[in-house]
Please model this.
Amino acid sequence: MKNELSAQQRTELLNVLKARFEKNMSRHKGLEWPKIQAKLESNTKKLRSLNEMEVSGGEPDVVAHDKKTGEYVFYDCSAESPKGRRSLCYDRQALDARKENKPKDSAMDMAAAMGIELLSEDEYRELQKLGSFDLKTSSWVKTPSEIRKLGGALFCDRRYNHVFLYHNGADSYYAARGFRGSLRV
Model:
């Protein structure tokens, strides 16, 4: 992954993010794009992470403003789990444990390489208050260490107009399961 975006890539990404922001005002009532853009322009590392979210199909958008830290919070807001981040087991330990038919990567490793965090169950449920996401796919979520130590991992989806939390072996992977990320800027 490249560390810096070119000036043209930065401009294109900011235009995409601004258009998405303006199209989905219900996700961020009371927030103003110029303040968000200024914050993004002063942090090229975070802009690179947002670009990684975008090119992998995440459609990142602002979902909150943390008044204590002054940070804006972005989540992947694509209708389904991002296409470029599916067919992944949960973490490196699970990937290394697979003897055959290994997936290309793990959700935790890919998120770290992108500079983002997997959504927690609570964050996933907050996202679902902003719309209907993962109606056909599912997304790995941060798994508590006590569950992970026993070989499991958690994922969520939305079916029957309800958000469900499930478990699976951390080494499992499916074409319809990916992960959604968050980024604080």
